[in-house]
Specification:
Structural class: alpha/beta
CATH architecture of the domain at 29-182: 3-Layer(aba) Sandwich
Distance between the termini: 26 Å
Mean pLDDT: 94
Strand content: 15-25%
Strand order of the largest sheet: 11-8-7-6-12-13-14
Oligomer: single chain
Low-confidence stretches: none
CATH topology of the domain at 29-182: Rossmann fold
Radius of gyration: 22 Å
């Protein structure tokens, strides 16, 4: 993952004429923090855990990136993710750099009290290198708003002395973390933000001259979404609300195809009852077997739809299935859902691929809006948050689309070039 991320950056950096020294500055992180910290287990045993916080680049603002709890967390993985966060924040045009954190742990093997102690201990271990104007963590794999609540409580408890006379607002220290519960300084609109941002980008893409090339001007676009977690569900829900026709969704157990267009909300309710979307043929206000058929994840990727949305797994589209992809447009809502080889093949064959650093940047964009509200002691309506998100996403798309058209390069390369140009302006 690290070498792949660096390879993309090097290619884009060469595309904007950077020398080797400048490229090295882009690739190498500013700081790598590796910590070992003790946590008391419920049985009284003390266990030592390893954690990381990699701070890649802060030219545009505080380091920004999630914290993941996973047994496979490693230095290289966290560094790669921090690197890509620098690009993503620059692509979105928000005043953040890139960072990432992680703890080597299987949280499923911990009780809730052990998980809380682990979360608080990790924060104390990295406390000297984070802060509302230094480094702003957020949820990631296996972390959530509750864990952010524990972390921000611990940070505030131990850092109240940092508040000076000109920083007496109650939410200043809370701004150290985003993705918090709404009643703990979080923001409305955060849960839907990543999926909503993806739909905003799709709508903006359709509004370009591309619609004539793809012959989609006078019909409702069909959409298939692989992955029906938070991101996939909200993408599907908001896409339907905006007039798109979602005909297929899937989760890890399989999927459904409903030719007339499915109801994402009813499908989610059905999934909660059954444990999977498989068998949930929901259309309008009713679920009925006659409405559709079951499909596998592989079959969903190969459907003859206008828009394919891989929102689940890395490398879901790869050398084994790339020649079977029929969709005209691919919106990368997962991180790295199209392998390098498949990407090159599909682009050469006329597919339009919106890269993950743009497509799924709605989440970090609303994290920025949460941070902004905390820093300014404000509380916004959901309508205002969504309006600001739309402005950010449309502006980000327009800059990348313009670069892509002007240089006749794929959107991914254009996105990285835009990001790099913004970062190096602050050197």
């Amino acid at each position: 993952m690290l070498s792949s991320a660096q390879k993309i950056i090097i290619k884009a950096a060469l595309g904007v004429g950077l020398d080797n020294v400048s490229i090295s500055r882009l690739i190498e992180p500013k700081a790598i923090h590796e910590v070992n910290f003790p946590v008391k287990m419920d049985n009284g045993e003390i266990k030592l855990f390893k954690g990381y916080r990699v701070q890649h680049n802060n030219n545009l603002g505080p380091f920004k990136g999630g914290i993941r709890f996973h047994p496979n967390v490693s230095h290289d993985e966290v560094q790669a993710l921090a690197t890509l966060m620098s690009i993503k924040c620059a692509v979105a045009g928000i005043p953040y750099g890139g960072g990432k954190g992680g703890v080597v742990v299987d949280p499923k093997k911990l009780s809730e009290t052990e998980l809380e102690r682990l979360s608080r201990a990790y924060v104390n271990a990295i406390a000297n290198c984070i802060g509302p104007e230094v480094d702003v963590p957020a949820p990631d794999v296996n972390t959530n708003s509750k864990i952010m609540e524990w972390m921000v409580e611990e940070y505030v408890k131990n850092h109240k002395s940092q508040i000076t006379n000109d920083k007496t607002k109650s939410n200043y220290l809370r701004a150290t973390f985003t993705g918090k519960p709404v009643d703990k300084g979080g923001t409305l609109g955060r849960t839907e933000a990543t999926g909503r941002g993806g739909v905003i980008i799709l709508s903006r893409l359709i509004g370009t001259k591309l619609n004539k090339k793809l012959k989609i001007k006078d019909k409702k676009l069909t959409v298939a979404v692989q992955g029906f977690g938070n991101v996939g569900y909200y993408f599907a829900k908001i896409a339907v609300e905006d007039g798109f026709k979602v005909v297929a969704v899937s989760d890890s157990h399989g999927g459904v195809f409903v030719d007339d267009g499915l109801s994402p909300h009813l499908t989610l309710n059905c999934k909660k009852e059954k444990g999977s979307v498989s068998g949930c043929y929901c259309r309008g206000s009713v679920c009925d077997l006659k409405f559709g058929k079951s499909i596998s994840n592989e079959e969903l990727l190969e459907l003859p739809v206008d828009v394919l949305v891989p929102a689940a797994l890395e490398n879901a589209i790869n050398r084994d299935n790339m020649k079977k992809i029929k969709a005209k447009i691919i919106i990368e809502m997962a991180n790295g859902p199209v392998s390098e080889e498949a990407y090159e093949y599909l682009v050469k064959n006329g597919k339009i691929i919106v890269p993950d650093v743009l497509a799924n940047s709605g989440g970090v964009s609303v994290s920025y809006l949460e941070w902004y509200q905390n820093m300014n002691d404000e509380v916004w309506t959901e309508q205002k948050v969504n309006g600001r998100l739309e402005e950010i996403m449309q502006k980000a798309f327009d800059a990348i689309w313009s670069k892509s058209v002007a240089k006749k390069i794929p959107l991914k390369q254009a996105a990285f070039e835009v990001a790099i140009e913004r970062i190096i302006k602050k050197w």
